[in-house]
Amino acid sequence: NTKLKTNWLPTRVLDVGLPNNLQLRLHLTTQDSPQTPYLTLSHCWGDHRIKKLETTNLIQMCDKIDFFELPKTFQDVIRFTRAYGAIFLWVDSLCILQDSISDWQKESARMWDIYKNSLFNIAATAAADGRVSCFFDRDPILVQALRLRISSPRCQPASTTGLYDLVQEDFWKLNVENGPLNRRAWVLQEQLLSPRILHCGRNQLLWECHEMVRIHFIGSSVTTYSASSIH
Fold first, then answer.
1. Which residues contact 101 (CB under 8 A, 6 or more apart)?
2. Can you tell me the distance from the alpha carbon of 42 to that of 191, in angstroms, rounded to the nearest whole number?
3. Which tens digits make up the pLDDT trace of 77-135?
4. Are the CB atoms for 105 and 35 separated by under 8 Å?
5. CB–CB of 78/89 below 8 Å?
6. In a 3-state reduction of DSSP, which class is residue 196?
7. Residue 120 and residue 41 in contact, taking contact as beta carbons nearer than 8 Å
8. Is 167 helix (H, G, I), strand (E, B) or coil?
9. H or E segment at 123?
10. How much is the pTM?
């Protein structure tokens, strides 16, 4: 994405820590903040009461955030961010003051920049609320592609001869479009603005960017669809 501002950070981000110091805290962006990419999270709030950033705990969270006070979804994404090698993660409930109307108005107006300038967005697509893990145990049988070799009849172009991986036609709809996350109207802007999205589905991880989506299957080459044919 040529329009990505690699030195831009939201007003607040979660500092997930370095490999030798995994202390989690809220980072307030200044001119001296590291110029490093950050990830974002799309998630369902649901009815589950989650830890939120408020004016009363802002100073405390800038010093330290108790990892085990966070919902399972957040814990998984923080671990993923660390494993990926990124330092910063943006999560709406932990980076916007939830008891301040003025802060919500200010930060909601910056959503374009927040998602557009992220390295990629992690979508907890199959998680109905924060109590559910982003990453589900998957059945290897369900993620094995059906591979067929097709030989063209003499009357057909030879270009149709070869190996083909057959995928369920509505795979994307079942695993992404019908997921609990995509029942939120708010998530539409997150999908449209994010340059890249990692969808955490119930049966599979799926990758989406502005050019294509990719679905990986065990024992198979990557099956690629044009994004324009999906939406």
1. none
2. 9
3. 999 999 999 999 999 999 999 999 999 999 999 998 999 999 999 998 878 777 777 77
4. no
5. yes
6. strand
7. no
8. coil
9. strand 121-123
10. 0.78
